[in-house]
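Lecture notes, part 5. Sequence design as translation. It can be helpful to think of inverse folding as translation between two languages: the language of shapes and the language of residues. The source text, in structure tokens, appears below.
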């Protein structure tokens, strides 16, 4: 079906999280914490080694170095700065020496997940050493008053169901999980299997449609010769298929995390346990999006939450929301790598959100416009228009993120008559 060997190996090791979760539930859960830590370290390392061999020791080195930083500098700003600079620099050097012109599945993939976890833990320990009155409500929930033990720390970093591609979760959640504060074991098996089946469904859709709506197609002369409407429709389908690659993997890893019991999120109004604490995608909101903010709220939500908590909110001293947002997006682009496509993609995200927030403000302040669009017919027409708008332009915004190199994404933009640039870039002048 056209899958590469590294991609197939990664998929198999993601699926291995399910039997590992069952083994943990039946033989390790509620056992002494040290035994659980060792189980997670060993299984996570083995899964990484199966994918990347000896290159796994890049991750081991980063984990050991960062822990020594925590020991020597404790929960200070110096500790945060060294952890941040070292891990970002190590990741970027890895990108430089191991990257190609394509999307790479190599040791830098788990490393980029690990970088956020290491930096986040340093911030949490720093927050734990600050007066509680100075912390926000979200920071209070994850702040660490005591440095984790080396085993606890290693198990958090190499947790087998999240080490390879995420999701992100704080040390505090891991500590509560190991302490058996997340409900009874059997309750999470069925929810985990449901997420597994949904992930397999999206994987089948991605692999099936991906064989026909390919990157080569949208770069071909055949694509350029199609009618403009057909090109818009195809770029929307192509962009949605590109999203499904990530969505399928996140659903599979989330299902494994659910089966471990890590995703416990309290109980609903009927007293049933909720297992959505690490949900990385909101399928319903994403599939029904009528504005780009819906995509942001429903896609890669754990990483978005991490960036909001550890980058965006900590730039409050800049005194400007747009500067903080731009800085957070620049961080995300750098975190992804050196390909210019990442920077163009996040630039367009900034411009799209800038325009949508302005338009929301204009509509909210103009009751005549709101009344005009409030009739059933106009509401239906607007809904259809917004569904088409998000569907087509999400494909446009995904072009540089997927094609990466300047020559490729500029050719695709040319094939689409630069419609996104014409639509979004003039808005600040307007």
């Amino acid at each position: 079906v056209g899958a590469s060997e590294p991609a197939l190996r990664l998929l198999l090791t993601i699926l291995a999280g399910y039997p590992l979760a069952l083994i943990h539930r039946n033989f390790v859960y509620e056992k002494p914490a040290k035994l659980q830590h060792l189980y997670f370290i060993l299984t996570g390392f083995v899964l990484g080694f199966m994918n990347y061999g000896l290159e796994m020791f890049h991750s081991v080195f980063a984990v050991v170095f960062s822990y020594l930083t925590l020991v020597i500098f404790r929960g200070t700003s110096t500790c945060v700065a060294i952890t941040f600079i070292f891990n970002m620099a190590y990741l970027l050097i890895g990108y430089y020496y191991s990257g190609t012109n394509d999307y790479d599945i190599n040791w830098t993939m788990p490393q980029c997940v690990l970088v956020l976890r290491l930096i986040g833990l340093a911030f949490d320990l720093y927050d734990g050493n600050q007066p509680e009155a100075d912390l926000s409500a979200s920071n209070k929930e994850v702040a660490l008053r005591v440095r984790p033990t080396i085993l606890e720390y290693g198990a958090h970093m190499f947790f087998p169901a999240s080490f390879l591609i995420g999701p992100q979760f704080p040390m505090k959640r891991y500590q509560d999980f190991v302490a058996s504060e997340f409900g009874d074991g059997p309750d999470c098996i069925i929810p985990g299997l449901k997420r597994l089946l949904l992930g397999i469904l999206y994987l089948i859709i991605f692999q099936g449609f991906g064989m026909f709506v390919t990157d080569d197609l949208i770069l071909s002369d055949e694509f350029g010769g199609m009618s403009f409407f057909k090109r818009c429709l195809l770029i929307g389908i192509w962009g949605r298929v590109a999203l499904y690659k990530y969505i399928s993997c996140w659903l599979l890893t989330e299902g494994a995390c659910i089966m471990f019991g890590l995703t416990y999120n309290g109980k609903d109004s009927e007293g049933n346990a909720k297992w959505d604490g690490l949900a990385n995608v909101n399928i319903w909101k994403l599939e029904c999006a009528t504005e780009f903010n819906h995509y942001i709220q429903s896609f890669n939500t754990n990483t978005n939450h991490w960036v909001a908590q550890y980058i965006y909110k900590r730039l409050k001293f800049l005194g400007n929301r747009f500067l903080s947002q731009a800085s957070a997006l620049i961080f995300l682009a750098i975190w992804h790598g050196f390909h210019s496509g990442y920077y163009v993609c996040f630039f367009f995200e900034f411009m799209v959100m800038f325009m949508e927030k302005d338009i929301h403000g204009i509509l909210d302040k103009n009751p005549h416009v709101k009344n005009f669009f409030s009739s059933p017919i106009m509401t239906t027409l607007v809904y259809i228009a917004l569904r088409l708008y998000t569907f087509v332009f999400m494909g446009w915004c995904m072009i540089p993120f997927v094609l990466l190199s300047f020559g490729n994404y500029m050719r695709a933009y040319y094939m689409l008559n630069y419609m996104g640039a014409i639509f979004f870039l003039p808005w600040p002048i307007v």
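The translated text above is only one of many valid answers, since several sequences can fold into similar shapes. The chain has three domains: 5-179, 184-280, 282-429.
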